[in-house]
Amino acid sequence: MPEESMLRRRHPELFEDSEKLSSRERKRVVPMKVLALGMPRSGTASMQLALHILGYPCYHGVTLIANLRDTEMWNQALDAKFFNKGTLFTRSDWDQLLGSFCAVTDLPAIAFAEDLLQCYPDAKVMLVKRDIEKWYRSFDQGVILNVWSPIFRLLARLDPTFIGSMNGTAMRWTKGWMGAHSRKEMQEKAKEKYWAHYSLVERVTPPKRLLEFELADGWGPLCEFLGEPVPDVQFPHTNESAALNEKIHLIIQMGLKNAVRSSAKFLLALLVVTISWWVINREAQRS
Question: What is the per-residue pLDDT for 182?
Answer without folding.
Answer: 96
